[in-house]
Please model this.
Amino acid sequence: MIRISTIFIAICMVLVAASLGLVLHAVAGFSGTESAIVALTALTFLILYNAVSMRLRDRSDVGGQIADLSRGTADLARQVAEFGRRLAAIEGRVVSANATNSDRIQAVLGEINELGGLVKQLAISVASHEDLIASAAAAPPAPPVRPHSEPAEQHAPQQAATTLRPAPAVAVKPAPAPVATEAASPSRSQPQLLAAVRNAVEESRLDIYLQPMVTLPQRKVRFYEAVTRLRDDKEQILTADDFISVAESGGLIGKIDHMVMLRCIQVLRRLMVRNKDVGVFCNVSAATLGNPTNFSQCLDFLEANRALAPSFVLEFRQATFRQLGPIEIENLAALSQRGYRFSIDHVTDLRIEPRDLADRGVRFIKVPAALLLDPKQTSTADIHPSDLSDLLGRFGIDLIAEKIEGERAVVDLLDYDVRFGQGFLFAPPRPLRPEGASATGGATATKESGAPNGSSNTVPMAGPAAEPPMRATGNAALARRAAGPG
Model:
């Protein structure tokens, strides 16, 4: 847009040129043509002069602007250089911090590896001590046949007495209980056992035993498995292997599962008061899963306790998952939609499809330690047992080794990267105390009532006393054997 000053200058130049032409025509006597030529010439010179002057002025202005721009660019360059220096300093600090953290992490990893090695060495030493103590306990019964050798009696009379005394105690105490438990079930006929189970269910003589599942190698309790026991009219214990088949044939298993779920939820609520990270495994039969009436009753109860779903795991047999029908699959989907997770036990082989199991909500698989450590599984299974834990972990499934009886098995399972363990080595199934809040701490009552219970054929459920044969295993057995001969 042309500025007003430029228009004014142009008008002035035209007036000056016209005035000059008029003056020459009037005063000097030039003709009109000559006066016009002179006026145009003057106007041209004025225009050239104005253009040159404006060009010089614009050049000076542009030069000043260029100088200002140069100064601004220099300032910007200095600021960029300062920012680069600061960024380099920050990067150096970050690199040094990362190096320091990596050194610390490496140090911690080294200490953890050392602790793992020490734990393995401790487990190996404990296993070797257990073998030595077992061999030492098995050796004393042989020498008592030498009564006629007087030199031997003269040299070691006290040693013979000390070796002969503890041997009957070790052999006599655990022996009656297994014989009694084995003889209890064959003495009943099928109708008698069904009647005993029916009376126990109707009179609510159902007890919950808890067996912990621990992390390896820390052996910290992470879960509990609820083990069901029934008591007949004579307060004799019926294990799950004794009454499950009878209850299924008699149509009582649905009511038993519902009662067990109710007790397990009560136990879980009490346990979570002390530890929010604890969980409870509850066994569910295939008959309940496939019966619409029984399952709907259990589903309503589980729906009402949906808030406990992350800590409440429903456990099924491997055979149940391999024989799922449309009804069972639909019921499992209903439970999974409500947030409940599943576990598989009674595993008989390692032909496992982790993807299918994970899609159906399985998050735990319990495999017997003997099956994992069986060399025959290397050739018959689809995957080597040592790689099973990693394979299941890719699909969000944790491997639990159950029925662990000795320290040597723990050492071998650690090489297989097994994260959880369960078995009599850590703790046997123990009954709840009357207040039902804990499954531990029954050793005192066991010692106090050990003599009466040892002579009977069954284990009464008065108080938290644990079964005597199950107490003689694991670390407790080591301590008892070590203390006995001395």
The CA atoms of residues 141 and 168 lie 9 Å apart. The chain has 22 helices and ten strands. The first helix runs from residue 4 to 28.
